[in-house]
Amino acid sequence: MQGTTDKPGVICIIGTGSNSCYFDGSKIERRIISLSFLLMDDGRGNYFGKELLRAYFFDKMPIMLKDKFSKSFDLDEDVLLENLYEKENASGYLAQYAQFLIENKSDSYIEEIINNGIYKVFENLINPYHEELKKVPLYFVGTIAYFLQQSILKEANKRGYTIGLFVKPPIDNLVTKRLEKTH
């Protein structure tokens, strides 16, 4: 947790993976068991990738957005099925679509997908620590969390949670802390 904080807090990872724990300042005191992207992928890159593909293929995506999406990716059925079921790292393949979500987060339809995903993160990964969050801040780690800060802040404010910090990759904080110690 030293890449995020050295103080007590609830730490939530939303990036390639998603998970959360309560950190007492020296060790992880409590955590939610992660059962992989198939079962517990709330808010992570592949979750949003799946949501975008489902919206596209179920014809729920607004036409202009659908056109933009189809120009950004090879959405051929055979290509999709091969990447999802024949090649390794289906989770990573799905996660690549999250870039589109981030680039278009100001679109009202995309914003709704983001808000639904962030709501699930709070319900499933953060609310189990509601007692701890009365006393300690909530920290977020990961690229998805970093780029969706505004939506996360809005949901945290609704619930009365204090945000401590957003860290894109935790290595950044480790390097910064090391540099501060040497100067």
Q: Low-confidence segments, ≥5 residues, pLDDT <50?
A: 173-183
**Could you say how many structural domains there are in total?**
2
For the CA atoms, what is the radius of gyration? 18 Å
Element order: H for helix, E for strand = EEEHHHHHHHEHHEH
- Tell me about the largest β-sheet: 5 strands, mixed
Task: List the total number of helices.
Answer: 10
Report the structural category: alpha/beta
Shape: globular
Mean pLDDT value? 86
**What is the class of the largest domain in the CATH system?**
Alpha Beta
Q: In percent, how helical is the residue content?
A: 40-55%
Please name the fourth-level CATH homologous superfamily of the largest domain: ATPase, nucleotide binding domain
Across the major sheet, the strand order is 3-2-1-4-5
Write down the CATH topology of the largest domain. Answer: Nucleotidyltransferase, domain 5
Please indicate the percent range of residues in DSSP E strands (runs of 2 or more). Answer: 5-15%
How many beta strands in the DSSP annotation? 5
Distance between the termini: 23 Å
CATH architecture name of the largest domain: 2-Layer Sandwich
Q: What's the short version?
A:
It is built from 10 helices and 5 strands, in the order E-E-E-H-H-H-H-H-H-H-E-H-H-E-H. The chain is of the alpha/beta class and 183 residues long.
Structural write-up:
The protein has helices at residues 36-39, 45-57, 63-72, 77-85, 90-95, 98-103, 108-126, 143-147, 149-159, 170-182, and strands spanning 9-14, 18-23, 28-31, 138-141, 163-167. The chain has 183 residues and is α/β, with parallel strands linked by helices. The model is unreliable at 173-183 (pLDDT under 50). The protein folds into 2 domains: 9-38 and 114-182, 2-Layer Sandwich (Nucleotidyltransferase, domain 5), CATH 3.30.420.40; 45-107, no CATH class. Helix 2 (45-57) crosses helix 7 (108-126) and helix 7 (108-126) packs across helix 9 (149-159). The two termini are 23 Å apart. It has 10 helices and 5 strands. It has a 5-stranded mixed beta sheet. 52% of the residues lie in helices and 14% in strands.
